[in-house]
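> forwarded from #structure-qc
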């Protein structure tokens, strides 16, 4: 469910204040934030935000295309290792033949 248009986008107040101070001073430095739930607003465009993913801070350079999305979308929390193929699954589940099992005396 989306947020009411009457309320506007949610942005953590301390984060928004830090961005506005940097805009007034024309500074460009990395802002660390744990607020993955904050929405990207146009004031953030051009800044680099270090978004915490639960383990480390992921630097995210904010562009115009990101406006309206949440910061957490750009800092994945899980590492994707890839899908396995059917041959890899079959080789992993098949038991290895024993050395003396096939020979009869």
């Amino acid at each position: 469910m989306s947020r009411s248009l009457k309320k506007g986008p949610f942005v953590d107040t301390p984060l928004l204040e830090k961005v506005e101070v940097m805009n007034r001073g024309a500074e460009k430095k990395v802002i660390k934030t744990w607020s993955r739930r904050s929405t990207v607003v146009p004031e953030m465009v051009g800044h680099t935000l270090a978004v915490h993913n639960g383990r480390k801070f992921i630097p995210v350079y904010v562009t115009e295309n990101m406006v309206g999305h949440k910061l957490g979308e750009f800092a994945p929390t899980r590492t994707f290792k890839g899908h396995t193929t059917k041959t890899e699954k079959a080789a992993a589940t098949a038991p290895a033949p024993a050395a003396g099992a096939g020979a009869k005396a």
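QC bot note: The longest helix spans residues 13-25. The first strand starts at residue 31 and ends at 33.
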